[in-house]
Amino acid sequence: MRIAIAGFGHESTMFTTYETPYEYFHLHRGAELLAEYDLEAILGDWNEGIEWLPTLRAQGAAGGPVEPEAYDRIEAEILEGLAAAMPLDGVYLDMHGAAHVVGRDHAEERMLRKIRDLVGPDCILSMSMDPHGNLSEELAAMVDLATCHRYSPHTDNQVSRERSIRNLVAVLRDGRRPVRAWVRVPLLLPGERTSTQVEPGATVYALAEEASHRPGIIDAGMWVGFAWADEDRNGAAVMVTGDDEAAVTATAAELAQAYWDARERFEIVTENGSWDEALDKALAADTPRPLWIADAGDNITAGASGDLTFALTRTLEREDFLASGLSIVFEGICDPDSVAAAVEVGVGGVLDRAIGATVDHRFSPAVAGPWTVLELVEGLMGEGVVGAVVDNGQVHVSLHVSRVKFTSLDDPSAWRRPYRVWHDVTGYDVVVVKNGYMFPGQKALAASTFMALTPGGTELDFSRLDFQKVWRPIFPLDHDFVPDLAPRILPGITA
Questions:
Q1: CA distance 481 to 474
Q2: How far is residue 4's CA from residue 89's CA, in Å, rounded to a whole number?
Q3: For residue 417, pLDDT beyond 60
Q4: 20: helix, strand or coil
Q5: In this model, does residue 164 exceed pLDDT 80?
Q6: Which residues have C-beta within 8 Å of that of residue 41, sequence separation ≥ 6?
Q7: Are strands 430-433 and 328-334 parallel, antiparallel or unpaired?
Q8: Angle at 38 between CA 171 and CA 151, to 5 degrees
Q9: What are the residue boundaries of the Microcystin LR degradation protein MlrC N-terminal domain, all occurrences included (predicted)?
């Protein structure tokens, strides 16, 4: 049995000025890619007799739209690798599902269409995705099996990949061709409204896990979709695969209806408000500290540029906060040139330069110095200096060389990706991070949290985003419509 592995992962917000280059992707090939999956542990005796043929997995964390040259280069290498591996019985596709290429829509559909044409209709394709990917009908129709993570934050990154691999091998061993039912659920919801740590997400998305164990069902998935892109495919979806068409259809209908029925309850359950309200909370005497604040409009984990200075600028304008004596650190302003300058002057040296807003200065400009270098932050993976903590006498700012979330390597949501910027924030009254919902490691350190609804590429007030191509009607952009939640049995895959 010959099974290839390939993958492409990116989450592209279209409401930022940042564009993602080829160099931003982490590339795993050959034996290095194969080592990402413990196939002996995943499959046990089933792994005997399988020849695994790893090609390329290109994985980039969220960012702006992908530069066309970068996408074309990745696509070409994947196709070349698959062509060299032919003939194939199956392909495991490690995808994300929310990529947008500058000037092009439907990136994953384009790639999967070429893969399907190459490997032929008899080859079984099993795809794992992030739930914030977009499972369009076109994409679903090109694969035999699809699944996605069931927890947000994604503490089951590896689990969903293992499930996809097991499902693929099980189908190949038994010579089955699964029945596939797909439903578009007209919801456009960000991750900050769909966390599985709270209701209704905790209950709604758990339905997929329960349904996957029913007779006649192989797998059930509930996709959130990606809210910060403007394509006609963006939105939620349900897909159920199995051997019993009646069970598959009924389960897909049940999950889709439960999803839709909960729509009004998908709210931001974390305490939230404007940046000024975040500072007001920090000043309140009864606020437990440290208070961790999410600068949600510049959420790098959803694709924002990570260099917005809106929150920093407004803080420096708040004389009451500056006079309070509260210590604050702004984590994760992406400014590689300023980090390089900090390395040059060293700890204790002074940077007479403005920081931040190197890519996106729509909401506030770079913040003038001088800045004193307090600390140079070494990478956790041995890659040298990756950040610098600087001080202007009023606030501390942690500058980063790249757009990575501020979590330690042992955070349950990290999976195996090199999130490399981390330093001790003990002693600060307020810690500001450039994400939306807090990750497990962040929550463990926070005595209280607040989500600041700041402007930026990941704006949570959709009324301030200019959607042009999203398939309408869709909630919450539209209300008072009756959705079509009838499952579509996808046609058999033919040449």
A1: 9
A2: 8
A3: no
A4: strand
A5: yes
A6: none
A7: parallel
A8: 75
A9: 2-283
Q: For residue 89, give both structure tokens.
A: 């019985």
Say yes or no to pLDDT of 319 above 90: yes
- Residue indicated by tokens 């509930």: 222
Confidence at residue 303, expressed as pLDDT on a 0 to 100 scale: 94
Assess whether the previous peptide bond of 121 is cis (omega < 30° from 0).
no
d(CA 223, CA 216): 21
Beta-sheet pairing, 448-452 with 488-489: unpaired
Question: Which residue is it, tokens 């869709």?
Answer: 474
Cα separation, 333 vs 339, in Å, equals 10
Which residues sit opposite 226 in a β-bridge? none
Alpha-carbon gap, residue 131 to 143, rounded angstroms: 16
The pLDDT of residue 381 is 74
**Structure tokens of 177?**
């061709």
What pLDDT, on the 0 to 100 scale, is given for residue 61? 83
CB count within 10 Å of CB 379 equals 17
CA distance 188 to 474: 7
Q: Is the separation of the CB atoms in 451 and 291 below 8 Å?
A: no
DSSP 187-228: B---GGG--TTSTTHHHHTHHHHHHTTSTTEEEEEEE---TT
Q: Would you say residue 418 has pLDDT above 70?
A: no
Q: Both tokens of residue 194?
A: 């769909």
Mean pLDDT score of the chain: 95
CB–CB of 378/367 below 8 Å? no
Rounded Cα–Cα distance for residues 324 and 282 (Å)? 10
For residue 183, pLDDT beyond 90: yes
Backbone angles phi and psi of 8, in degrees to 5:
-150, 120
Q: Decide: 138 and 231 in contact? Cβ < 8 Å.
A: no
Is residue 367 within 8 Å of residue 312, measured between CB atoms?
yes
Identify residue 177 by its one-letter amino acid code: R
> Nearest Cα to 435, choosing from 187, 129, 190, 189?
190
Strand partners, 29: 56
Quick check: 138 pLDDT over 80?
yes
What beta strand segments (E) does 236-342 contain? 236-242, 272-273, 291-295, 328-334
Enumerate the domain spans of the chain: 2-267+484-489, 272-459
How far apart are the C-alpha atoms of 207 and 262, rounded to whole Å? 13
- Of 116, 8, 5, which is closest to residue 66 (Cα–Cα)? 8
Query: Which contiguous run of DSSP H or E holds residue 68?
Result: helix 68-85
Determine phi and psi for 388, rounding to 5 degrees.
Answer: -150, 130
